[in-house]
């Protein structure tokens, strides 16, 4: 599912693939009590997704040599609070959870998002896509991309996840224009000022019924 080619060479990642409606609370129950408390009042499927994603994050941190058993808590707008020396990102959707981390000395920020490779509801596309992005969706569809509107959404989510830790500012769907290429890369042009970087590079894959998009700022 996840491939090393999606990420900087210094990154480490982990993922879990499950049945879409499977509820397994083992990873949730193994979390630090402070992590459990973040979703303690949620339904079991939410606890299952959260527990699996946090488990992936701890595995990736361990592979990087930074896991000291400390909880990964949440900051402003739910952003994960990684160890000071690390940047990273997590994602979860029905049937898939994942995390990626990298040393902050080498990677400034990362974003990771996974979505089912199904078309968006018709009313959603107009709220996420800029006019200049609509033509490329037709091109991607003509070149065999299954649900390019969902891929666009996935790339925008991965862009936001890299943007927010650098700026602590909201980034609306209309504030980034995504250029998606058939070769599995994309560029997110940031349309807000001030901005720490003019664009964010990304990569994407379609695997086993999911789109996965990853961004990195070096």
From TrEMBL:
4'-phosphopantetheinyl transferase domain residues: 110-196
Cellular component aspect of the GO annotation: enterobactin synthetase complex; plasma membrane
Alphabetic keyword roster: Magnesium, Metal-binding, Transferase
Cofactor(s) it depends on: Mg(2+)
Record InterPro entries: 4-PPantetheinyl_Trfase_dom, 4-PPantetheinyl_Trfase_dom_sf, 4PPT_N, Enbac_synth_compD-like
GO molecular function, one term: holo-[acyl-carrier-protein] synthase activity
E.C. number(s) listed in UniProt: 2.7.8.7
Residues that hold CoA according to the record: 46, 54, 91-92, 113, 157, 161, 171
Single Gene Ontology BP annotation: enterobactin biosynthetic process
Keyword Magnesium: yes
Binding site for Mg(2+): 113-115
Name of this protein: 4'-phosphopantetheinyl transferase Npt
Organism whose genome encodes this protein: Corynebacterium occultum
């Amino acid at each position: 599912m996840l491939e090393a080619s999606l990420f900087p060479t210094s990154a480490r990642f982990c993922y879990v693939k499950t049945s879409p409606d499977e509820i397994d609370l083992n990873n949730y129950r193994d979390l630090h009590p402070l992590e459990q408390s973040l979703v303690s009042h949620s339904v079991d499927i939410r606890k299952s997704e959260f527990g699996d994603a946090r488990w992936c994050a701890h595995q990736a941190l361990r592979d990087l040599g930074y896991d000291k058993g400390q909880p990964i808590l949440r900051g402003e707008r739910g952003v994960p609070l990684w160890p000071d020396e690390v940047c990273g990102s997590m994602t979860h959707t029905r049937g898939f959870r994942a995390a990626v981390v990298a040393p902050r000395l080498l990677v400034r920020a990362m974003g990771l998002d996974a979505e089912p490779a199904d078309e968006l509801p018709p009313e959603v596309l107009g709220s996420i896509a800029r006019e200049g992005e609509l033509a490329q969706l037709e091109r991607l569809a003509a070149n065999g991309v299954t649900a390019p509107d969902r891929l666009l959404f996935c790339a925008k989510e991965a862009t936001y996840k890299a943007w927010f830790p650098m700026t602590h500012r909201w980034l609306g769907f209309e504030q980034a224009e995504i250029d998606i290429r058939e070769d599995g890369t994309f560029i997110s042009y940031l349309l807000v000022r001030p901005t720490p970087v003019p664009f964010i590079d990304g990569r994407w894959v379609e695997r086993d019924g999911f789109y996965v998009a990853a961004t990195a700022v070096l």
